[in-house]
Design goal:
- Keywords: NADP, Oxidoreductase.
- The structure is a single chain.
- The protein has helices spanning about 5-15, 40-50, 55-60, 75-85, 100-110, 125-140, 165-175, 180-190, 190-200, 200-210, 235-255, 280, 310-320, 335-340, and strands spanning about 65-70, 90-95, 115-120, 145-150, 215-220, 265-270, 330.
- With about 350 residues, it is an alpha/beta fold.
- The chain has a single domain (about 55-155, about 185-340), classed as Rossmann fold, CATH 3.40.50.
- The longest helix has 23 residues, at about 235-255.
- Bound molecules: NADP nicotinamide-adenine-dinucleotide phosphate.
Length: about 350
């Protein structure tokens, strides 16, 4: 018998089509094949115990953890410092300006469950990182949280030119557009993540042994500038932050991801959008805090505002405590990347 090709195809398709099965009508609303027995008191108790795991105290507990934060005296580093210290961690803060660090310890380190301890260092110098590691090792047997936050921005240039000569004038002829500027921003924002992390590996490993159920963690503060496709008028800074994100992933892979190493240390990065800091505003007040008027970002971010202390604080707690987070970028930007677009 002749069957057209079209008919044969539709017959074949019907063969694989969803066939509804006849479901027997239940005589009672309680099916013994699907549900367990009635709920006993001991089962209820077990459920109560299970509920405890979801308490904030358990999920986001940093009490008695030892932390080190670079650039902890201002901006985002200060937000991270306060977050950990007011929740019971012992937080060492480092930076080049001792006065800033001391002021933070005096202002924010009193009458809180944790503590803030200044230790000055320059994270662009390997020798200074070594001295810092020695200083912390002399005081502590372990480190639970390392936040590599210190960073600087680069020279800014306009890109809004519609002819080659003007664009060249802005990007090349500008006397402040120097290779040294690129080197400076790279030196501060990138190699330090490598040298700080590797200098503290033994202390970090001890941190995982010290607290049951805790793997020590490195959190690099990168930026959405390493993700968006626009140069935001600072090519060198954005290139350095893209490098910071990639370096975080390589470190996570080599230190804890590969079967050869598998150290119990989680390495992630937080990519902030715009937050008030000395970098973004050029100054800080007597509280060592900086301020950006909300209106300035009304049209620039879907959140219609710059980031707040609490936005950064909750991201830091999440990245520090979530034991299943490793090798990732946590973007906290009020939707900036959504609007600006990524590469
Ligand atoms: N604020 C934002 O909108 C934003 C957005 C995305 C990413 N970020 C990143 O967040 C991090 C913190 O920046 P911030 O915005 O909070 O700016 P900030 O207030 O200027 O903080 C930077 C901190 O880093 C320290 N620092 C700089 N160079 C150092 C060095 N060589 N050795 C040791 N410490 C050094 C500074 O202290 P000293 O000068 O005393 O050394 C300062 O406390 C940076 O990595 C930045 O790229 C910021």
């Amino acid at each position: 018998m002749f069957v057209s090709r079209r008919l044969a195809t539709s017959a074949r398709l019907r063969q694989f089509a969803y066939q509804p099965r006849a479901i027997p009508i239940q005589t009672s609303s309680f099916s013994t094949s699907r549900c367990h027995n009635a709920i006993s008191d001991s089962l209820r108790q077990k459920a109560q115990q299970n509920n405890q795991q979801f308490k904030l105290d358990n999920l986001f507990n940093v009490k008695d953890k030892v932390a080190l934060i670079s650039g902890g005296g201002t901006g985002i580093g200060l937000m991270a410092t306060q977050t950990l210290a007011v929740n019971g961690a012992k937080v060492y803060i480092t930076g080049r300006t001792e006065e800033k660090l001391n002021r933070v310890a005096e202002l924010y380190g009193k009458e809180i469950p944790g503590s803030i301890i200044p230790v000055p260092a320059d994270i662009t110098s390997k020798e200074s990182i070594q001295n810092l590691a020695d200083a912390i090792s002399q005081r502590e047997s372990h480190l639970s949280i390392l936040i590599n936050n210190a960073g600087i921005s680069s020279h800014t240039q306009t890109t809004e030119h519609d002819n080659a000569n003007d664009l060249r004038k802005s990007l090349f002829d500008d006397p402040d557009a120097t290779i040294k500027d690129w080197e400076d921003v790279y030196r501060t924002n990138v190699p330090q993540l490598f040298f700080m992390t590797t200098a503290f590996l033994p202390l970090l490993k001890n941190g995982s042994k010290t607290h049951h159920g805790w793997s020590s963690t490195v959190i690099n503060i990168s930026s959405i500038s390493g993700i968006v496709k626009t140069a935001q008028h600072h090519f060198a800074y954005n290139a350095s932050k893209a490098a910071a994100i990639h370096l975080t992933k390589m470190l996570a892979n080599e230190i804890s991801g590969s079967p050869e190493s598998r150290l119990p240390i989680r390495i992630n990065n937080i990519a902030p959008g715009v937050f008030p800091s000395e970098m973004t505003t050029g100054e800080s007040d007597e509280m060592q805090k900086s301020y950006i008027p909300k209106e300035k970002y009304e049209k620039k971010t879907p959140a219609r505002r710059p980031g707040k202390d609490e936005d950064m604080g909750s991201a830091v707690l999440f990245a520090a405590t979530n034991q299943y987070l490793n090798g990732q970028t946590v973007v906290v930007d009020g939707g900036y990347v959504l609007a600006a677009g990524s590469v």
